[in-house]
Amino acid sequence: MDAPSTPPPVEIGAATAPRRTAPAAAVTTAAATTTTTTKRGAEASESAGKDAGAVVPAKGTRAPAVRLPAAAATAPRKTASPKELRELARRQEAERKAALYRCVDRAAWTRNAADPAEPARARRDVLVASTLKLADGTRVALDLCGGADLDKAEREELMGVVRGNMRAVCEASAWGWNENKKLRELCDADARVIRARDAASGALAALAHVRFLVESEEPTLYVYEFQVAPAFARRGLGRRLMTVVEMTARATDMAFVKLTVLLNNRAARDFYAALRFERDPDSPLHEMRDPERDGVHDILSKDVRLRSE
Q1: Which residues have C-beta within 8 Å of that of residue 210, sequence separation ≥ 6?
Q2: SS3 of residue 204 by DSSP
């Protein structure tokens, strides 16, 4: 067999140098060598994988492609389904309501963090003032107590002022007078009573029975009773005490002060109007064609939240 002829020399760097094609036998030999090498590498990888406890694809199958995570900026955003949106809205509403009741609870009760089993006690430290000085120089001392903490003598003292001011007014209305109901309300565990006493004599000058509640989905300080003893009327005590009520509501993160007033109690209605109380959206009078003729009571409220100018 003749020896293959020596190929002509190729000039390095020649732009027009022809590209040589390897003989078929050389290509076949190179492919076989590559296949053998790849097969050996695969067998070695498989063996190493088994030793390491890795999952190795079975022979004859193709390994799954490895997908690199796309950049966060280019990742498509998943659109929530209507069901997911409803569930999110439900959770948000539940948390909002829970926050309202936590706010009211903080204002009304003192709890022992070290002993959660200990019963909560009515807070006494939420009043923003302890003394009032009237225009005539009279000093009035203020304190706050829970309705359930009142003893028999204190209950009778408070009911004496309520009875003297309200019995005739209630009897003249469709509500009538129910002293037992008034007393139960005053002694309720949720009741908070602000008492104003003449600093010199100790006589009860005024009282405000209030409660921290959630009303119309807003934290509210509701005034159940607001009475000034006749001996201290027309001296500015009522206005000063209501200011303390409003400031206490604001200091405890309440949004509104609310109260109920009988329509036949013209003096009380004028008093609250002068303090800028307005008819509340929950008032039953909104649904009446002639409220003054058909109505019995009105619900008034005042927004006490601080607002930026």
Answers
A1: 191, 192, 193, 194, 221, 222, 223, 224, 245
A2: strand
Match 């959660």 to its residue by tokens.
116
Average pLDDT estimate for 258-279? 97
pLDDT per residue as tens digits for the range 153-174: 999 999 999 999 999 999 999 9
Consecutive H or E run containing 207? strand 204-215
Quickly tell me which residue has 């807070």 as its tokens: 123
- Domain 121-303 CATH (choose: 3.40.630.30, 3.40.50.720, 2.40.40.20, 3.40.1410.10): 3.40.630.30
Say what the pTM is.
Answer: 0.73
Return d(Cα 133, Cα 126) in angstroms, integer: 20
Domain regions of the chain by residue span? 121-303
**Rounded distance between C-alpha atoms, residue 176 and residue 154, angstroms:** 24
8 Å CB contact between 121 and 110: yes
Distance CA 182, CA 244 (A): 23
The C-alpha atoms of residue 246 and residue 233 are separated, in whole angstroms, by 20
Under 8 Å between Cβ of 140 and 196: yes
Structure tokens at 223: 């005034």
Strand 139-146 and strand 192-198: pairing? Answer: antiparallel
Q: Which residues contact 247 (CB under 8 A, 6 or more apart)?
A: 128, 129
